Amino acid sequence: MSAAQRTAHRLRVSWPLLLGTAAFLGALLSGAARLGADTYWHISAGRWMLAHARVPTHDPFSFTMHGAPWIAQEWGAELLMAVVYGIGGWPALVLLVAASFALAIAYVAHFLLPRMEPLHTVLLTVLGACMMFSYILVRPQQLVWPLAALWVGGLIDAGERGAAPPWWLLGVMLLWANLHASFILGLLLAVPIALEAVLGARPAWKPAAGRWGLFLAAAVGCALVNPHGYRLLIYPFRVLGMPALEHISEWQQPNFQQLHVFGLWLLALLALAFGGRIRLPLLRSAMLIGLIYFALQHIRNVSLLGLIAPLLIAGPLARLWRERPVRARDAGALDRAFRALARPASGAAVWATVVLAGALGVAAVRLRKPSVPAQVTPRAALAALLARRPAARILNDYNFGGYLIFRGIPVFVDGRTDMYGNRFIESYFNAVELARKGNFPALLQRYRIDAILMGPQWPVVRLLERLPQWRRVYAGKVAVAYVRAGAQSRASADARAGGGGAQGGELHRPRPRGRGR
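Given the sequence above, the corresponding structure tokens read:
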């Protein structure tokens, strides 16, 4: 082997490495990896834990629910976010979530490559990445993407090889359960994957059933190792049963009136199915249909569909395509070109790529200067309000709750919809939207509100302009602020009841008036 060949061998790259790097840099350079309203209170929750050396079990951040039971299901991710923010600020958090996206995409490509032609691997991985691209937010849900891919891919790989489930995956479940409540999806998917593996092991199905059954029991046991115990297993189902989630944009259904990559993905899947180019076993079909159903119910689940679906369909899809190959004149040449990068990357190439991508990523965030969007950061409006009512009990916009918590101001409401409960969230949105079931004056009286900080788009703002007891002290594109005319500032102890949260939601946008719920 010549010196040039040895150098090329040492610096050999691969598709997983290239696709992961492209995902990382693409998320940063395009601005897709971004901060949001909930980023504020997640960091604040992490800071609270660092200051008190424990996981909160009761609300320390609001004046409406102060002391109420709170399941801080994202406590591990919030600690991580607080530490990373303390080290490098907003740019470090953006780099963290972009790296999480990149690792997930690299693993998907790594999983697909031994099962499919390299060209098909790249196409399927890129399609999945496109479905995730719009949801790269700095939040705990996005930080567990690599764990979700590793868990599902590891179980599927073991089942397809007829091997026992790898016990090291229990560590993945333990970590996942302490970072985000979406771990319940991993447990639910593990059951049909295990059943498929047991059925595929016939006639020796009994030993396989014993191995997989023991693994599933151990996985549930690992999920129970968390600060909240068995309540964390119930938590996701309780949240999904809240009708008030319809008020929050990420919990609403996808809008197919606009061009959406999810819609294109569904059309491509239907075309392949009707054309006989895809045929899945019953259990794989059930899992895929379940993921599609969840994505159709809540737009936030589209990213999980894009991440997990390629892992489910890769094996059956590749087998069917090998049996019924597509006749194309240039297919062989393309496959040969793509196979050149199908071998694993060398260690030197991995390290060199990581260092180079890291340097480019740092340069990208220095140039773009990441910051939380202005529409959830009402600095000027809050300053004007506090100048007149320093210790006010503020009725705040749902989108402003995270920023107020970050500033150490007790909030009326924030993104922890599970803690506030369905009745509270419904009464809040009905009141500020001036819905028929709402009672805005009663809401103000019940919670002794003497200041209001809302986005200008809310219907209640038009009402406040006509009420003589409320005086506008600030108006802008981001927020408007009102104080009760003639009201005296309350004592600080009465207004500032504490200083954290769980199930989040990004920007809420009020529904147009007259539109049914």
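Confidence is low (pLDDT under 50) at residues 489-517. Try to locate this feature in the token string yourself.
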